[in-house]
Automatic annotation (TrEMBL):
InterPro entries: ATP_synth_F1_ATPase_gsu, ATP_synth_F1_gsu, ATP_synth_F1_gsu_CS
Protein name: ATP synthase gamma chain
Family that this chain belongs to: Belongs to the ATPase gamma chain family.
Membrane topology term: Peripheral membrane protein
Top-rank lineage group of the source organism: Bacteria
HAMAP family assigned to the protein according to its UniProt record, in alphabetical order: ATP_synth_gamma_bact
Compartments (UniProt record): Cell membrane; Membrane
Keyword vocabulary terms for this entry: ATP synthesis, Cell membrane, CF(1), Hydrogen ion transport, Ion transport, Membrane, Transport
Length: 292
């Protein structure tokens, strides 16, 4: 019964794994609800700032912010890559990194260079492995995004763009659609698209403002807040996507463990039955030989 003992040990091991994946599924479900609430709570602020920025784009002020000016296309391209710190969340990071790799290949084929800000340990490690130029990074963000941890790394690219050292800045993250679906997104962060801002403002007429203390101060602060809100919203969406993907992945792992346990028990029962049948046949054969 050596084989039977090995199968029993294997069954016990898979049962322990099933308990772990089930616990991780339940934890991810609880975190997912909080992450979704956080994501939805951040949307009104982001939408309002976008509306004001859209009105501002139609105001024709005497001062134009550098974020709304297109730079030389030959300059390097900036990428803000948002991934997770931990794994075990299905193909979430793989899909995002595949999209970013395609963009990097496209930039390289155009004879240009890319500078990356990595938010999340998985993206940071991947960019280092492929030899990308990582100018700043933020990892170990926890379950709640904090803007003070995000501003520093992202500001590196914002300052470079304002100084005319970058041609564009893209924001790469995973957008939360629903619990079962998340999609990788590559969104242009800079230069700010005037037409896109006007669409977000949902206004057909021009706006005008009185600036206090002056237009440069107000516009500088507003557009910086706007870009920060986009980054914060992207991280919040990515965290909601992470917990949803992890919950689904752990549920699939738990179900697979249950199926494997059933198969192993079936093999164990067949092995034990074969051993018992063999012993009975030996006893009957021995009795027949003695009686004969």
């Amino acid at each position: 019964m050596a084989a039977g003992k090995e199968i029993r040990t294997k069954i016990k091991s898979v049962e322990n794994t099933k308990k772990i994946t089930k616990a991780m599924e339940m934890v991810a479900a609880a975190k997912m609800r909080k992450a979704q609430d956080r994501m939805r709570t951040a949307r009104p602020y982001s939408d309002k700032v976008a509306t004001i920025a859209g009105h501002l784009s139609m105001a024709n002020p005497e001062y134009v912010h550098p974020f709304m000016v297109s730079n030389d296309a030959s300059k390097p391209v900036g990428l803000v890559l948002v991934t997770t710190d931990k794994g075990l969340c299905g193909g979430l990071n793989t899909n995002m990194l595949r999209t970013v790799t395609g963009k990097l290949r496209e930039i390289d084929q155009a004879g240009n260079k890319a500078e990356v800000v990595a938010i999340g340990n998985k993206g940071f490690g991947f960019m280092n492995r492929i030899g990308a130029s990582v100018v700043a990074h933020a990892t170990q963000l926890g379950d709640t995004p904090h803007l003070d941890k995000l501003i520093g790394p992202v500001k590196v690219l914002l300052d470079k763009y304002a100084a005319g050292e970058l041609s564009a800045v893209y924001l790469c993250f995973t957008r939360f659609i629903n619990t079962m679906k998340q999609e990788p997104v590559m969104q242009q962060l800079l230069p700010l698209n005037a037409e896109g801002l006007k669409a977000k403002a949902k206004a057909s007429h021009a706006w005008d403002y009185l600036y206090e203390p002056d237009a440069p101060t107000v516009i500088d602060e507003l557009l910086v807040r706007y870009t920060e809100s986009l980054v914060y919203q992207a991280v919040a969406e990515n965290m909601a996507s992470e917990q949803s993907a992890r919950m689904v992945a752990m549920k699939a792992a738990t179900d697979n463990a249950g199926n494997l346990i059933k198969e192993l028990k079936l093999v164990y029962n067949k092995t034990r039955q074969a051993a018992i049948t063999k012993e009975l046949s030996e006893i009957v054969s021995g009795a027949a030989a003695i009686g004969g």
